[in-house]
Sequence to fold (69 residues):
Amino acid sequence: MRTVAEASGDHVLDTSADGLRIVEPNGSWALVVPDSARPVTRVWAEGATRADSEAMLDKWSAKVAHVAR
Fold:
């Protein structure tokens, strides 16, 4: 999680949730949540459009996958 947080750069981070919430300047966000019992990390994303949401999901899923290697 620390590596994902460091990869967020200048984005707004919210660590008060169950995981790490990264907010883009346009208001789109991704929530990265590690499972406490299994070696699984879930990523949720929301944006103004479906394309924005999918872009956030792709971006942060790729960063999590890269860290897991």
